[in-house]
Amino acid sequence: MRTWIAIALVALVGCAALPKRSMRDDWPTIADDYDRTTEAWTVKTSLRDEYQEVLEIAAVFRSPQWRASFASRDAYFRKLEGPARDARMAQAKAEWAGPYEVELLVTTWDRRENDLDRGSKSGWRVVLVDEAGNEIKPLEIVKDKRPAFTVRADYAAYGDFATAYIARFPRDKQLFGEGVKRVRLRMSGSRGGIELTWTAQQ
């Protein structure tokens, strides 16, 4: 009997609704489950030419919701309580006040084309796009050099042949705030282009 109860509980957890994406700039009062929050903030697409797939990409926006859930999970794993946990959450809030960050998980058919960290020498141009259509160029795009199993523990969309990058963008334009409905990321090159969209959910 207990086994069936445990299985039912696991099923219920697995079927729990994803947190609704909020484009507000304020810090969340509650940190949702990390895995579900990450799934909610992960968008994916692919680019194909006539004969083959050129690339696959999954992008995770490190929004206030994501940062709060990541910090909460970190505090749980580290057994932080009271002031120590409060300090970890305050650190995450301070990080949100810095550059916008997006984790890019990129797989290319030809591995030589997976070169987002080469800056202006890269074959790809990556920008964020605000609601008014303004493009925001990255401050930098660097490889996430952590071990693959560590990256995969944080991002379930990280594939076996993907390269993980962290893209940082300046706060020249306000991407999050009252009334904001979407944020986009564009990636283009001589092989074509893609657009990923995070849409606010009511």
Structure explained in plain terms:
- The protein is α+β, with helices and mostly antiparallel strands and 202 residues long.
- The chain has one domain.
- Helices cover 27% and strands 30% of the residues.
- A hairpin with a 2-residue loop joins strand 8 and strand 9.
- It is globular, with a radius of gyration of 18 Å.
- The N and C termini lie far apart (39 Å).
- The relative contact order is 0.19.
Annotation keywords:
alpha+beta; globular; 202 residues; disordered N terminus; five-stranded antiparallel β-sheet; 5 helices; 9 strands; four-stranded antiparallel β-sheet
Lay out the secondary structure:
Layout: H1 2-14, H2 34-40, E1 42-48, E2 53-61, H3 64-77, H4 83-96, E3 100-108, E4 124-129, E5 135-136, E6 140-143, H5 148-154, E7 163-169, E8 182-189, E9 192-199
Antiparallel strand pairs: 1-2, 2-3, 3-7, 4-5, 4-8, 6-7, 8-9
Helix pairs in contact: 3-4
